[in-house]
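Appendix B.2, paired examples.
Example (i):
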Amino acid sequence: MAAPKQKEPFVRIVKRDSISLGKSVAIRIAAILLSLAFCAVLIYSITHSNPVQVYRSMMDGAIGTGRRTWNTLRDTMILLVTALAITPAFKMRFWNIGAEGQILVGGIATAAVMRYCGNSMPTLLLFALMILVSLAAGLIWGLIPAIFKARWNTNETLFTLMMNYIAIQLTSFFSIAWEAKKGSGNIGTINQKTQAGWISTSFLPDIFGNFNYSINVFIVLTLTVLMFIYLQYTKHGYEIAVVGQSENTARYAGINVKKVILRTMALSGAICGFAGFLLVSGSSHTISTSTAGGRGFTAIIVSWLAKFNPFVMILISFFLVFMGNGATQIASEFQLNESASEVITGIILFFILGSEFFTNYRLIFGKHRKEANE
């Protein structure tokens, strides 16, 4: 008796061997458009407003004025530098979830120099010291979990995550120790009268206007180019890639894996500490537990979506900040609470992350199965 014919599934999921750049870009654009359409329906169901007006308001919130445009660029640079910081570690498959803490300790170090040396040191020496201590603080904070990983093979994900909480408590301690008014729990704006240690927001006003964050932009874009060169064209970058593919292969090739882990996490932590410097000196001019603002986690999405390409990170960072700032404007203009902007941003991120499935896999439906197998 013949065996019953097995019913084949209507659709199968097949992993792609490769995908063209054009198709990959098209998939991501489609995901963004779908997310905007979904958000438009959601907002209309809540506010009964014209979706076109909603998105016009979003653009106005992100780049509607010169100041808003520079604020968007400033936030983009902070997110970008954080993504650059964690990229070497992630490419090495060292899951550095501790960027938040590394940013905070870099910010604490910067704030300390601004408070105690701001009015007693020449400007150039002051900035040199601020940069040095922020790099050193972030480096040490990143090196601690790397040492434990290299020597005792501890779980770096949990280790770096727990160190975030230690950094948050340290920030709380200094916020109270340095509080501007007793009982306020915050230190207020550092050097508000003298602006000692503040990165200038009036650099080349004839070109960029009287209010700009052009110095932040120049610094971070330069760092982006350097990181691309480091990862693609240096021996260290090659060793990071080999260790990320297989530690056993790296050892067979004569690469000192422990040394690469320590060196890479020192670099990752140092750049995160530098991000803390940019936040304190070039943006908020204070330090608090919310200074990092979740950028350490958002940067993971940026780095992963860019597939560790620093230049692609520029576009993704700008898009995420643009949508975040625009969503905040929507929430304000259409009388929604602050959580509404977070929901909108979350939906957009969900669609973008979901698009990664279609760049890695393809769907084969029943009538096309025979063609796909041939």
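Example (ii):
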Amino acid sequence: MLQIMKNQITVIFILLLSGVILTGLTFNEPETKDSLDLPTIMRLIYMDIQTINEGIYTENFALIEQGAAAINEHPPLSDETTALVKKTLGDRMPAFGQYDKLVHDTADSLKHAAADHDMERVLEKYQIIQQGCVSCHLSFRNEITRARITAE
């Protein structure tokens, strides 16, 4: 009898812990139009990607729309961050802007695909966003991170 109670307590604990973890994956981002630094915006976009992931895996098109809209509407870079990125990248700044535009435009298309409940288009647009993010990171992240650390 004691072993059965221990097993029940363990199962309840695991269920509660799973609920806490899953709830944390879908929390709403802070509503702000204030400018932010690049690491903060990247963390927000990462959370939006997680929302889209959850929506894809659960076929919840509303979550996919929510995540895509948030990517497209994230707050702008702060003036300090913009200046640092421009100074760091110099004549490569247009390439950075192209990645940003690609991700934003595709997030908008992803939002529309989710509104249409078109999972094939959702997956196509999501793959473009992922590739755009990874390509931008490979091209610029280390350099911008070093410049940011040096500036601090």
